[in-house]
Amino acid sequence: MSEEETRRYEIYRRSHLPKAAVKKYVQSQIGAVPAQVPIIVAGAGKLFVGDIVENAKEVMRDWGHTGAIRPEHVREAYRRYRMEHNVTSPLHKKSLFL
User: Fold this and answer.
1) Distance CA 19, CA 24 (A)
2) Residue 93 backbone dihedrals phi, psi, to 5 degrees
3) Nearest-5° angle of CA 33, CA 81, CA 55?
4) What does the pLDDT read at residue 97?
5) What is the pLDDT, as a whole number, of residue 95?
6) What angle do CA 10, 50, 77 make, to 5 degrees?
7) How far is the C-alpha of 5 from the C-alpha of 86, rounded, in Å?
8) Which tens digit of pLDDT belongs to each residue from 49-97?
9) What string of DSSP letters covers 72-88?
């Protein structure tokens, strides 16, 4: 890894989703849960966000763009993720990225 990639990886390792917000979200979706469940969901969420960001960087390369990741890169990365993993439409009418 380059020095820049190493720095970004270290930042990624230190980052986290706020446990209180994750706990509130999980409880709103499925009700009362053990204390470990929000921690697991936050970890899975962090992995998902990391995958989407990596895919967005790949979209940038495919499209010949440089610089920062833009919303259209994230949308395309999410679209590709949904196609690759056969993810059906979300239950909510408005999707987070599309």
Assistant:
1) 8
2) -65, -35
3) 110
4) 59
5) 56
6) 145
7) 30
8) 999 999 999 999 999 999 999 999 999 999 999 999 887 766 555 555 5
9) HHHHHHHHHHHHHTTPP
Q: What is the DSSP string of 32-64?
A: S--THHHHHHHHHHHHHHHHHHHHHHHHHHHHT
HSE-CB for 53 with a 13 A CA cutoff: 10
pTM of the entire predicted model: 0.75
Matching residue, tokens 């469940």:
37
Q: Which two tokens stand for residue 92?
A: 């909510």
Per-residue pLDDT reduced to its tens digit, 10-53: 988 898 889 899 999 999 988 898 989 999 999 999 999 999 99
Q: Which amino acid would we find at residue 76? A: E
Which amino acid, residue 20? A
User: Is residue 38 within 8 Å of 23, Cβ to Cβ?
Assistant: yes
Q: What angle do CA 32, 36, 42 make, to 5 degrees?
A: 95
